[in-house]
Amino acid sequence: MKRILFLCALMTLVFASPVWANDLRVSREWLLERMGAQEITILDVRQPYDWNASPNKIKGAVRRDPAKVQDWARGLAKDKVYVLYCA
User: Is-above-0.85 flag for pTM?
Assistant: First the structure.
């Protein structure tokens, strides 16, 4: 469980341009305090092999294929914070 909650990056997505504006690391404690908040969505962007091989999944996380980020990033809401998990 501890490993699951370790996050590689927190990215605040800004859609005024096609690039991601901020790349920040977050602590386990920061995320635990905010899990379940409506303005935060956890995106599990592990490689397909890693995701399939892992018995550990973050409850409530949305699975996204990192190879298709160009496709799914356009559909993300501008008023949310997205935490990307990429172990």
Answer: no
